[in-house]
Amino acid sequence: MSAESPLVRFENIQKSYDGEILVVKDFNLDVAQGEFVTMLGPSGSGKTTCLMMLAGFEPATHGEIYLKGKPINKVPPYKRGIGMVFQNYALFPHMTVAENLAFPLEVRGMGKSEREARVKRALDMVQLGEFGGRRPMQLSGGQQQRVAVARSLVFDPDLVLMDEPLGALDKNLREQMQYEIKHLHEQLGLTVVYVTHDQTEALTMSNRIAVFDDGIVQQCAAPAALYEKPENAFVANFIGENNRIMGTVTALADGQATVKSESGDTIIAQQINVDNVGDRTTLSLRPERVTVAPGEGNTENTFSAKVKELIYHGDHIRTRFTVCGHDDFIVKVPNSANHAALQEGNTVTIGWKMEDCLALDA
Amino acid sequence: MSSADLTLTEDGIPLKQKLARTTALQRRRALLLTLPLVLFLVVSFVIPIGQMLFQSVHNDKVSAVVPNFAEAILQWDGQGLPPESTFEIFVKDLAKAKQVREVGRTVGNMATRINYEMPGSRSLFTSTARKAKKIEAPYKENLIKINKKWANPAIWLTIQRAARDITPAFYVAALDLKYDKNGEVVQADELYQIYLNNFMKTIWVSALITLICILLAYPVAYLLSVLPLRQSNLLMIMVLLPFWTSLLVRTTAWIAILQTEGIINDILVFLGFITDDGRIQMIYNQTGTIIAMVHILLPFMILPLYSVMKTIPPSYMRAALSMGAKPIYAYRKVYLPQTLPGLAAGTLLVFILAIGYYITPALVGGEDGLLISNLIAYHIQKSLNWSLGAALGTILLVVVLVLYWLYNKLIGIDKLRFG
After folding, report:
1. Residue B1 has what pLDDT?
2. CB-CB: which of A78, A86, A152 is closest to B325?
3. CB A77 to CB B318 under 8 A?
4. CA dihedral of A261, A265, A270, A276, whole degrees rounded to 10
5. pTM for the complete prediction?
6. By CB distance 3.0 to 4.6 Å, which of A165, B132, B365, B381 could disulfide with A85?
7. How many CA atoms lie within 13 A of A325 on its CB side?
8. Do A78 and B327 touch (CB under 8 A)?
9. ipTM score of the complex?
10. Is pLDDT above 50 for A2?
């Protein structure tokens, strides 16, 4: 993050709709110029509310939001100069695509010729140069999505907000649009605050991700850090797939936690946020970090496991084991030339390294 | 399409034909389901409308009462008085008709028919008919001796016109026109010009009612569409409440509220805004008609508006605001245009209902609050001039159809959304 003041700053934001329940409990976030920040979380976690407060459609119950260093709580949405892409695109159905794009320019009193030039440039930017005369309803979902993005950018806002913009698209289109938005962000140097509940989307596009749950940011970090070093069990569980083994800490030393699982097995794990011997803990282990038949001494943890189910996924074979009393232990066995040939009912050894197994809060 | 293009099925039958055959049963079944309604509409709607159209140009009261004479007078060239032979047939027919008691075929019926076109001529026929048996040749001379009005060629021209079963005379009357003594169509005397003015008034009052309904309904419909479900349900019940009350009860309630000794006047006097002598006349006039009809027709404006507004997500307005549009500008450019289908439907619904409304103006309209439907009802029920009533009804129908056509041209019927 740059040293100068951030473009957006949320400071101790609280939000309640009914005066009884806090939807957002204590939200703090800085967004630097040119950053792509995603607010990720399950529905009802308060992420969209935070976006709406930034856009100016919902007042903050407590705290202050700053845009370019100025408090904006009392600034109406039409004076904030923030571009926004809505979940359902909100393209005006009674206007053509070009009229939709010209709308923010018209509002700003821009002359006709400049308006047309800008609209054309924006449409070309999203490869929809030919579609200016169409009505939004005559476009496919992906095209509408592009128009919505173009419309949010056409007036050169300081900041673009996107509220689950890809939710209505099918999987292939969604992936394609993720790359397009990411490239636009990189090419134009945009600052984007993006809301989604889809972790793949967040991981693909963001510089930083704020993981929301229960009105609180559980962790705010770069995608790799979130995946590799989740700070708590919620983040570990929400970002990517993981195997969870419940247990009790029996020893702590040098960042290593020795944990006794409920089945009585002893597992060596990396200490993340367990503080005391005797604490309950959740061990988190990514399915791709488990090795089948690891070979003597290569892994700190080695157990014999029984194959329950094999599912062929092409690039890998998803294998369900019973291990350490855990009936639903998933391992991704890569489909490489010399991968282990497993059969249902086989008993094999599997193992994992200490640093791949994280001891988190219970 | 040439036969070469025809797509054939495996067995060589054209695809279209085969498809029609396979769906025939389905179509027949669907048709059967609509049959009761179709029959009902034919009996209760198509036939009566047809009868009305027929009635408005058809009246056989003269040819039914004096058939031989009716045939004879139609031969007359209209110059001077008809020939002696025609007079003879007239007197004989009249004498014969005097004996008839069958309703609708009496001399009185004929006299009434001719009286429509020549007011004050009724007694001429009835009194002459009483003496017809005694009149002898020369008929022309003796008839004029009984009443010298028979020497006036105008009466014979009028009879000649009325002797035709198919006649435009009732449209002439309905359009405030009349035949002068030479049989030319001219404007009626000012005193008798009531229908066109009433048509204009009906259109004007209906337009005003529609406008008031729009102004009142729009905010309510908007509120309905944005309030939380619990509150909007309550509001919706209040909107629909009038539908659950008898029309008569509602109208009577307005009388209790608006009459000179009514609640509003009492309150105004009590508060000292008006004196006891200066109580305002708010009912039994056009004001009363407008107030009561706005109340009755308001739901027909609210419901289509609401159904359209309900489908407009709040994100449209938000999008407009985020792009820098001030609320009023955003509302005008983004929200309002999207409610047009509902607005158009409500306007059409309320206007067409208002233009033909009968009961409320009849109850609270007094003299100047009467609309065209009240005049039509008068001719059907009181004056029993059904042909004139039918002609007025047909003109009303044409006016509505023309407005509908104009509406379709301007807005497009396919854009309407009734809910």
Report:
1. 44
2. A78
3. yes
4. 50
5. 0.78
6. A165
7. 11
8. yes
9. 0.81
10. no
